[in-house]
Amino acid sequence: MAKTCADLFEGFNCTILGNPSEEVSGIAYRSNRVQPGDAFFCIVGLAVDGHSFAQDAIDRGAKVLIVERKLYLADATDVTEVVVADSRKALAYAAAQFYDNPSRAFSLVGVTGTNGKTTTTYLVEHIARMAGKKTGVIGTVGTTIGDVHEKSEHTTPESSDLQHLFARMRDAKCDCVAMEVSSHALDLCRTWDTRFSVTAFTNLTQDHLDYHHTFEAYFEAKALLFSHDYPARRVICIDDKWGAELNRRCTEAGDMVVTTGFDESAAIHPVKVDYGVARTDVVLSVRGEETAFSYPLVGRFNVSNIMTAFGVGLMLGIPAADIAKSLEDASPVPGRLERVRTPHDGGVSVYVDYAHTPDALEKALGSIMALGHGRTIVVFGCGGNRDAGKRPLMGKKALAADYAIVTSDNPRHENPDAIIADIVAGMGDSQDKYEIVPDRRSAIRRAIELADANTSVLIAGKGHEDYQLVGDEVLSFDDRVVAREELERRFVGAAAEAN
């Protein structure tokens, strides 16, 4: 596969200094990954300027440089430079051109919001697959193409990686792809020049303010997916003011919108909900018609996810009856209120959830407590080098449980004790309701030791992750595996004595 400079930037505002017919055999934005014949994009990053690595890229064989300013390099006399105003947009645009605009080959669903993105994309994928479509998923848990699952580094990959992934999905004959779209990805133009069929909004609560700084900026980043730059059919949950504002904007723009929410004004809203231990029975009003079904997810927040996915299904042209039928056997999402199963649990119900924001922790706890399993114990921490403002809020929300154990999450390059101090600052004078156990395995063990029959334990923050980030180390650690081991350690002896 090769394209000329003229091919890559046709229709894009740029100035080509050199040979427009120069062939490009690959696209790179990291100089250490440049292959001979690649075009190297000098991305102006938050901490590093890619222009500083242009010479290294040339030394490795790059014949084309995409720059925001003309470079004068001693060894660049035969190198073509493409001068652009925004190297990130240029990377996204050129990548889409290089792979022949693959997002136009299937129905692409983009889901954004603070919480619920992963679950919603998995539900959308299930609905589409049950409708006979070949599907793909891109998000936090990883990438799935048909039946093949792969790990991924980012919720939404960098634009050139994303377009390559779209091309693989196109070549695999996918009909429908559901993708999580992060606020970072939108702000950094990773999805620029991608064509969406449907875009969906779940909610907005505090997260990533270390990057966006204000709620308003965070919202505007999310709102980009609903702007004229990304024309599509819209599904918007209007349970918070941010969703209501998005609905107002999209309605004024003449977009086709389906609203969801618990309020009766939403086009899709619940008429009746019965929460069970393993399933939820719901009657939804769908554009005025009632649809009753049962699905294997629990909690009020999953009703929201179900409604959003239902709306997306409608926007994809799938009949309401078929959507409801498909959701009857939807698979649980890894690390999302996932029940830890083991032969010896002593009557203790252990759930692992990805909840790492105040709102998500509150909802996960509320869902478990609504099941009526007696006492609830929560084990949680906060990630390092991330939004520190949410730490005391997480601590305050954790007090809804009968008892909380504050521990380490992914401390990264921060001192775990300092992170914990930030958390407990929000827990006030409630020392009798929590304790601090910095080692995560020890914290999980402590929670299970404190648990009696009919106690529920929520282990929050890491969900599906099978690692822990400590400094520069990536340690093997899976909450689900550790909880299973600790349950067996405590109760296997008791089971043997009982027999």
TrEMBL record:
Domain Mur ligase N-terminal catalytic: 23-99
Pfam families, A to Z: Mur_ligase, Mur_ligase_C, Mur_ligase_M
Biological or metabolic pathway of the protein: Cell wall biogenesis; peptidoglycan biosynthesis
UniProt-listed HAMAP family: MurE
Modification N6-carboxylysine occurs at: K222
Annotated Mur ligase C-terminal domain residues: 335-463
UniProt domain Mur ligase central: residue ranges: 111-312
Coiled-coil stretches noted in the UniProt entry, renumbered to this chain: none
PANTHER family documented for this protein: MUR LIGASE FAMILY MEMBER, UDP-N-ACETYLMURAMOYL-L-ALANYL-D-GLUTAMATE--2,6-DIAMINOPIMELATE LIGASE MURE HOMOLOG, CHLOROPLASTIC
Gene for this chain: murE
Residues where meso-2,6-diaminopimelate binds: R386, D409, N410, P411, R412, G461, E465
Keywords for this protein: ATP-binding, Cell cycle, Cell division, Cell shape, Cell wall biogenesis/degradation, Cytoplasm, Ligase, Magnesium, Nucleotide-binding, Peptidoglycan synthesis
Primary localization class, coarse: cytoplasm
UniProt source species: Ellagibacter isourolithinifaciens
EC numbers: 6.3.2.13
Catalysed reaction equations from the record: UDP-N-acetyl-alpha-D-muramoyl-L-alanyl-D-glutamate + meso-2,6-diaminopimelate + ATP = UDP-N-acetyl-alpha-D-muramoyl-L-alanyl-gamma-D-glutamyl-meso-2,6-diaminopimelate + ADP + phosphate + H(+)
Molecular function GO labels: ATP binding; magnesium ion binding; UDP-N-acetylmuramoylalanyl-D-glutamate-2,6-diaminopimelate ligase activity
Official protein name in the record: UDP-N-acetylmuramoyl-L-alanyl-D-glutamate--2,6-diaminopimelate ligase
Any one GO biological process: cell division
